[in-house]
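task queued by scheduler; priority normal; single chain, no ligands, no partner chains; default sampling; output format set to structure tokens
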Amino acid sequence: MKTTLLAVAVLWVGAAVAQAPEPPSGGPGPGFRHETPAEHLEHLATLLDLTDAQKAQVQTILEEQHSKMKALREQTQASGQRPSFEQMKAQHEQMQQELITQLTPVLSPTQLKKFQVLMEERGPPGGHH
């Protein structure tokens, strides 16, 4: 019985993959590459129309945020326990709120609103956008 269910599941997944549409150009797929941190900062600076001073401050804040996320991920892996989806979502939301709090004195209200919209468009890490 288990073998039959497994075979049906494998066939179903194979059929779903075979029928999946091609990823749009520029999206994840063959030949797609992620932005480097420097490219990401430049892209963000352009979208938010950051001054050179703001760009430097935002870079520092984002690097600190990245370090915190990396440390949290390493701590979680070292513990040998996998957090639940709810725990990961809560941690993500907390870190996003901390980021907004840190960026509030640096960005203008218009820039901050644009940044929040960009964060919402990105969605949660590891999810599909």
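post-processing summary
- Residues 6 and 12 are 10 Å apart (CA to CA).
- DSSP finds five helices and no strands in the chain.
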